[in-house]
Design a protein that fits this description.
8 helices, binds NADPH dihydro-nicotinamide-adenine-dinucleotide phosphate, 5-stranded parallel sheet, alpha/beta
Length: about 300
């Protein structure tokens, strides 16, 4: 039995860390796989789907990312596909969200502008509990962001696919609950995965359902946002500002009007940086679970593609 490893970058670094974490299992860097029939687990960033069919003993594919839109196509073998869930990464993403929520809530954008003109003028934004934050996609990462913001006294709204109760959170489910969710939030934080159902979900009509003066933060996947509709919502609709960590395509083309828009801030897909040590530990734990006969987690539901 052996492991195939094909990370996004720095292959030797990943190999060293996995060998430390799984000293009893042979690990081979793809494409140098001596005996394909011995591969039981494939640990991959991006990987050609057809190649995964070369391993008859393959038991699971372990993604080195939380987003798996590149691994759910029909050519990928029908074995459990396990997403990356790294709590350290979720906390880093929560810090990115807190930074921007506090920035706009407390008016730090206005003070930066005032400083250019030597203006000493105080704004009174009201307490955090008057500024609900709506999280589109309340999964592994959304939950962590919700916990951290709730500690800062921001009320939390969540939008999910499957209806359920979550303590301390106002939950809205399905398309029927989306406009009410958007209208109830001063900040909308988009953490949705890229699936056929979420593609360009945030379009003209969704942006017009948002509150006057609200702020849009996007750090799930760029394909869920219609850029042209976002710019219209900033120019003549209800939005005060937008911060994008993800765009479609990436990198954002140099001629995109988003770059120069005065109400847009852009970070280059850095809200959840991959830390080799913590990510590899989460993946190695799943390999060990499967070796003990326990199920890995979280497993992707291929019908919903996330
Ligand atoms: P999860 O799968 O744990 O959560 C996804 C959430 O989205 C769930 O709450 C799910 O609802 C909801 N959802 C999915 N489809 C729909 C739909 N059609 N309607 C309503 N709700 C829907 O994912 P994670 O929290 O781990 O990650 C979220 C995304 O963040 C990843 O897919 C990835 O794209 C992105 N990401 C970005 C990073 C960055 O650096 N910018 C880093 C890491 C991840 P339900 O709970 O009902 O299933």
């Amino acid at each position: 039995m052996a492991i195939l490893l094909n990370p996004w970058a720095k292959p030797e670094r990943w190999l060293d860390v996995f060998r430390e974490l799984l000293p009893d299992l042979p690990i081979h860097l793809w494409p140098d796989i001596p005996k394909p029939e011995e591969i039981r687990y494939a640990i991959v960033g991006d990987h050609p789907a057809e190649d995964l069919r070369r391993y008859p003993a393959l038991r699971a594919i372990l993604a080195l990312s939380a987003g798996v839109e590149h691994l759910v196509g029909p050519a990928v073998p029908d074995v459990p596909l396990v997403r990356l869930h790294d709590e350290h990464m979720s906390t880093e993403m929560a810090a990115w969200v807190v930074h921007w929520v506090v920035h706009f809530h407390r008016g730090f954008d206005r003070y930066a502008d005032q400083q250019q003109r030597a203006i000493w003028q105080v704004h009174r934004p009201g307490r955090a509990n008057h500024h609900p934050v709506g999280i589109l996609g309340y999964g592994a990462i959304g939950r962590r962001i919700g916990e951290v913001l709730a500690d800062l006294e921001y009320p939390i709204n969540a939008w999910v696919r499957t209806e359920r109760k979550i303590d301390g959170v106002e939950v809205h489910a399905g398309l029927g609950g989306l406009d009410a969710f958007l209208g109830a939030s001063s900040f909308v934080v988009n953490l949705l995965p890229d699936t056929p159902e979420t593609a360009r979900l945030m379009d003209e009509s969704r942006f017009s359902a948002m509150r006057d003066g609200s702020v849009y933060l996007s750090l799930g996947r760029g394909a869920t946002t219609d850029h042209a509709a976002l710019i219209r919502a900033l120019d003549s609709g209800p939005l005060r500002a937008a911060v994008l960590d993800v765009t479609d395509p990436e990198p954002l083309p140099t001629d995109s009007p988003l770059w120069a828009h005065p109400a847009v801030r852009i970070t280059p897909h850095v809200s959840g940086p991959t830390n080799v040590r913590t990510a590899a530990a989460a993946v190695a734990e799943n390999v060990l679970r499967m070796e003990r006969g326990e199920p890995p987690r979280p497993v992707v539901d291929r019908r919903h593609r996330y």
